[in-house]
Amino acid sequence: MNPIEVHYKNSFAAIKIGDFLAEHMNNAAIVCIGTDKCIIDSLGPLTGTLLMKENIKADIYGTLEKPVHAMNINDYVKNLKRKNYDRIIVVDACLSNKKSQGIIEVREGSITPGKGIGKLLPEIGDISIIGIVDSSDKAFHDLVQDTRLSLIYDMAEIICRGLLNAYGMRLSESFDQASMSST
Question: How far apart are the first and last CA of the chain?
């Protein structure tokens, strides 16, 4: 399936994300990477927290209270390999050019967290949801000062709604198939 790129302000963003992810929601874990200690890296844990509040029927790893970050990701990767998930969906923030700020990219394939800032962390995931939160042209100090929490929060809400839509679409497909086989 071709990757999608959609701006978080697009009124159809959550629907597009949900449509892409619907077929991947069966027995899926959702891993939300980042830390609440830095606004530009809080997209993942904020998304995880919003998903937990919605009681989505999937295993969620990475919240504001219990983040998945550079210091513990190796343990999470090992634990996830021991479980029999059909898919691991990963949410993470990313830096790119200024024109791409606010874009949410959803694609098949893993991500390598921290790669953009030179960290050597393990690849993780089967499906990636990347939120471009700011420009990689800026110095780290400027990123920390310039990135607005409102942008991160709004993007996390759209990703959360997209995942909820995907789960809802998956449930309705299962319900439709079950009702067709009983007739």
Answer: 32
